[in-house]
Amino acid sequence: MNTKILLGSTLLLSVMAASSALASEQTQQVAPVQGDAAATSPFSTFQVVQTDENAEQAQVTSVSQLSDVQPTDWAFQALQSLVERYGCIAGYPNGTFRGNRAATRYELAAALNACLDQISDKFATKEDLATVKALQEEFKAELATLKGRVDGLEARTATLEAQQFSTTTKLSGEAIFQGTMTNNVAPVPSGLPAGAFGATGDRFTFYHRATLSFLTSFSGKDLLVTSLQEGTYPIPNFAPGAGAIQTSQGSLAPSFNQASTNTFGLYYLGYRFPVLKDKGTVFITALGGELSDFTDTLNPAFDSDGQGSLSGFGIRNPIYRHISGKLGGGLSSGTGVGANFNVTDKINLAVGYLAPGIVAGRPVPFTVGTAGTFAGDNGGLFGGDYSGLAQVTFKPLKNLGLGFTYVRSYQNSPFIQLGGGTGTFRANFPMGTTPTSANSGGFEFNWQASKRIGVSGWVGATFANAEASNPAQGVAKGNNATILNYALALSFPDLGFQGNMGGLIIGSEPQVISSNNGLGRDRNTNIHLEALYRVKVNDNISITPGIIAVVNPEGNSANDTVIIGTVRTTFTF
What we know:
This protein is α+β, with helices and mostly antiparallel strands and 573 residues long. The chain has 8 helices and 20 strands. It has 2 domains: 122 residues, no CATH class; 408 residues, Porin.
């Protein structure tokens, strides 16, 4: 190792020790003098000795000549050695050292260089060199080990740089395996023909869904999300099965957020960025958007289809999902914009607008089969189906949150889904396949009662209006219907072991409680019951067994109870 460097390191430590010590002890003793040339010198704490003869004659040669340095200072001997033995550090012309002034890295570098020159050229004795050599020998093993570690780190860094996926993008993923068993019942809405509705079936079914997400940030605060997905969950929208419509009550949570069935494709594409000095965030969604993306649903324990509720109903208030999770394959995934803003530290405002991607991307009216189009179905981002939201979230206490939500929506056949994919057949099609507008209001709350108990819930009411006449279904323009849903959810974090969670959800899925058209209303109140227990195997794997029961499914007490037993395994990375 270079002797000059070792000596320089020792001297640098001495300089810093002397400077900091005197600075800490004499801050109140010596104050900068205004107008003093030395105060504005580039070497504000100490001066490098000049090599010309005039400078040497003016040089301070003894530490005793420095009026603000006392023998009692703990760094006195270090400074004495620098000044008297090596003569490379001096005080100011007025006889002060000014240890209270800070030194820049440039000043330290210049002073150290001067000391190195003095030592290597004039003052390095045989004893000094012998000491350095002895130190080299004593720490030879440690220095070799350190060198090896540095070389290893350099090699690993080079490998990472060469093989890194991206400097701006991270990859995350989720895979869900779920086994399910349902009792064989055929819930029929009261007053409607039984032949149109099929049985749930009692065969054991196994579903899966895989999601890969690329998370890209260009500034450290923004986020571009690109998600690819494939799955086999059934569509939660009364899809025909064996020639008959099947109920959506008790639908499994992952089926509400699935790009397609058995086809790996783009599921979500969106970009978000902060505004107003980070007090707000803007969300621009090209595909896969939901109103809940930019809104606090106040159901944190259950608002996840991979880690939370087992049912789609238990995730959040269905009024957030009037245009999403309907037909799968991207047909109803949202396209639009949303934003939220922290008005104060207790009040947040969220607003947004979404249209189904298949409608937003069509400049002409959307036609399905031979059904034709209804008045007002003009296509485009603002001409067809849409859902707009405004919500005020108020958190008066750290552990209590309240949400007040308004949603305005318009839906045309075949996208009508005012139950958000949950609830009764009537709730989703209160005007049949007639174009329908709706005003929905919701109240949500979340209360963390203790570290081990969380309470959340909601009430949602939707007031639907027929925007056209459909005599074949007994609907006249101007007819209206009221849809109601509510829920109470209890979560038990760390139940049994840390990371585990127990959960209970009870409520009523969306159903029509009043109507003045020919389709009528649901006569009896359906009751949704759900119990689950999530087991955290490790940081990347969780297993959630549970049971879902719907009493009076389809709002008809004549129907048998739907009972679903299921086990969900979620892998995340």
